[in-house]
Prior knowledge:
This protein is of the alpha+beta class. It is 36% helix and 23% strand. The strands form two sheets. A four-stranded antiparallel sheet has the order 4-3-6-7. A three-stranded antiparallel sheet has the order 1-2-5, with no helix packed on it. Strand 3 and strand 4 form a beta hairpin. The relative contact order is 0.13. The model has no long low-confidence stretch (mean pLDDT 86).
Amino acid sequence: MADLSLDILVIPTYNTLTLGVADNSIYPDPNTTTSPSIEICVPGFDGVDIVFTQNSFNVFNSYILGLTGVDDDLLPLPDGVYTLTYSVDPPLDNFVTKTIIRVEQLQERFDAAFMKLDMMQCDQAIKTQSKVELNSIYFLIQGAIAAANNCAVETAQKLYNQASKQLGYFILNNCGCSGTNYITNFQ
């Protein structure tokens, strides 16, 4: 019989309103564990303990996480570094902690900018420059995710902030770039 081994997976829901967490644990006998719960620390808020359904995919929103009230509309979950700790009894000290960074709101902005790229009526150098800039932003977003997955929280936040800043500048300037960077560096 296998030993108890707790594990959770944060699964993308591709929705700013939800956070998906799947139970990937190995239970010798699921009936012998009690009180499965997960503590989720949302950036800027206190951690909240929530009942967790074993061997299942759990979806959390702003109401479940205590960010909004029963009668309020659901709010997008903030981007940033989240800490999730899943635990069961017995034994009391059996838990697993994961650190992740949510980038759904930033990704939504990135996707909108990317979709505009194909619709812009620019010359080839400018269009190519836009692709270079979006690739750089995408690289920063992926770096933030990798850093958070490896518990490098400060690095993750720096990379996220840089990606957000560059994306904001890109969106504001749309097709106003000169294309010079592409011509200088890639031709």
